[in-house]
Description:
The chain has helices at residues 16-25, 44-61, 75-87, 101-111, 211-216, 227-232, 242-257, 260-280, 307-319, 344-358, and strands at residues 5-6, 67-73, 93-98, 115-121, 123-124, 127-128, 146-149, 151-152, 157-158, 170-173, 190-194, 204-210, 299-302, 322-323, 334-337. The protein is of the alpha/beta class. It folds into two domains: 16-257, Aspartate Aminotransferase, domain 2; 260-358, Aspartate Aminotransferase, domain 1. β8 and β9 form a beta hairpin. The longest helix has 21 residues, at 260-280. The chain starts with a strand and ends with a helix.
Amino acid sequence: MARAINFNPGPAALPLAALERAQKELLDLNGTGMSVMEHSHRGKAYEAVHNEAIALVRELMGVPDNYDVLLLQGGASLQFAMVPMNLLPAGKSADYILTGSWSQKAYKEAKTVGTVRVAATTEKDKKFGRIPEQKELDLDPNAAYVHITSNNTIAGTQWHEFPDVGNVPLVADMSSDIMWRPIDVSKFGLIYAGAQKNLGPSGLAVVIVRKDLVASGRSDIPTILQYRTHADNNSLYNTPPTFGVYMLRNVLDELKKAGGLAAIERVNREKAKLLYDVIDERSDFYVSPVEKSARSTMNVVFTLKTPELEAEFLSEAQKRGMVGLKGHRSVGGMRASIYNAVSLEWVKALADFMREFKR
């Protein structure tokens, strides 16, 4: 079978070896005679997979001991509500920095829970072409937390230096760039990420949260929505998405074999450079709408001169087995999502095609 050259923004490409492992073990997990999807989440066979997935998150990201790693359902969108429900008490407010559609959605959801402020926004004419500078941030030193979206899948922008928020907990939605490079987890109060871009299949969310924030979180909300419930039960309070967790384990195991986050960062930077070099060549054939300092290493967005030319570009790319290059419907243009599992060879093929198409 010929594999597609997959530039989808999410659900996105997964490591071939992780998929082949799942294929091999689909009917029989470790000699048990059952698929991982047939095992009890209370049984030892699944528990071993579950614990390995959590341990790999800790190892690869260097998660300190004073943080919990939670495996939850609902993707990042549920976290838009769970974060303020747990961390935003009555009488306090939270700051949101708006850099794209997903941060807007997180802000909108938080407004239904409590008091929130816009500490900065880079929306201009309904476009987000940059990341705000530190001096632009109107931060409340008494805020319950400050929320950012680390990478903006639709706009193609990314925080390359995280904001200084003082002693206020920094909360980051890292759905589309988690584990693309090493970061200092201790700079954050809470990190959450939907799995379907860099970690595994859709429906699963990884949450990394400081234990003191879990302990001080609100208790007047439904039990299933309290972080402490899942922290106290090793994310096994209710039946977890067992196949999603299994695939998370497989993906992270392959990332570890590849040399970890430092190694994947080198490859990711090389992939992004290949595409941005083509865009920046002396021509207005391809145009990036993003300030260079804010360009994403995960989602490379660009436009061509006319809609007709863009349609032809997509048609020719499809003939070469390339999928997922059409930009989000809200902004148009092109978008190449080059997450961890997108190979350097695929990106080289796209860069070569872009040059050929321009000629």
